[in-house]
Amino acid sequence: MALLALTNDNLAFFKRSLRADLPDVGSSHLFEALAAALGSRTGIALATRMREDGAEMPSLATIDQGAFAARLADLGHRVAALPALDALARSPALPDRIWAVFKDGDRPALNAWHGECQRRGIPYVYVTTGRQHARVDWDWITVNPAFDDVPSDDGESKLLDRIVGAIRANAASSPKAKFDASAFAGHVERLLPENAHAQADAIFELLHGALRQARRPVPA
Question: This protein's superkingdom (predicted)?
Fold first, then answer.
């Protein structure tokens, strides 16, 4: 299941795509089903969650295709073939991606992605693909310098332990995988391509979670 940043632009992209794929389902019902897929009981609950998060540091949601189908059925829609929500979440056309995929050696595209991550203040996470294997890289360098100490404040060793745990879990079926990791930067190489996306999701989620925690206001 893919991970999605809950931004207005991402939801607008999903709604446009779903309306094109499911023209017989009304807009309100599509939004209710999408909210269910994103872990909210109703569309209003999803909108409230996003409003409380604010635009600067949106939360993430794991997309549940089964919950989407079940909610559509509850609303009276029996659809033979549903669009793959994971594919939409990992589309290069998604406005606010959390990581990107490039061919090995595509420096212009990597530089452009670095610039986008810096503009948005998110960790620099990307997948590069070769003939047989894929590699996932991450770096804290694109995050606002005011948060340079976040991995240390989070307990760098604890964050690193979680990253290493995620790496091992998502590389379990990639027998040749190797990694070099810290809480600030690292990579996992020689991954089977089918493992790379889940690996990138897991690493971004951990870094993003540490950053969100640091940005929360301290209670008075």
Answer: Bacteria
Strands 3-5 and 60-62: antiparallel
Confidence (pLDDT) at 220: 40
Closest CA to 187 of 105, 121, 98, 126: 126
Structure tokens at 22: 């499911």
Q: In which residue ranges of the chain is pLDDT below 50?
A: 218-220
**Contact call for residues 50 and 61 (beta carbons, < 8 A):** no
User: The dihedral of CA 64, 212, 125, 175: what is its sign?
Assistant: negative
Are 84 and 107 found together in one domain? no
Torsion of CA 53, 59, 61, 67, to 10 degrees: 0
Is 95 domain-assigned? no
Whole-angstrom distance, CA of residue 196 vs CA of residue 212 = 24
Name the residue with tokens 């793959």: 84
Q: Per DSSP, which regions of 44-177 are E strands?
A: 60-62, 100-103, 124-129, 134-139
User: Of 40, 58, 89, which closes a domain?
Assistant: 89
9 touches 93 (CB < 8 A): no
Report the run of H or E that residue 159 belongs to, with start and end.
helix 156-170
Same domain? 107 vs 64: no
Whole-prediction pTM: 0.91
pLDDT score at 156: 58
Matching residue, tokens 């207005």: 8
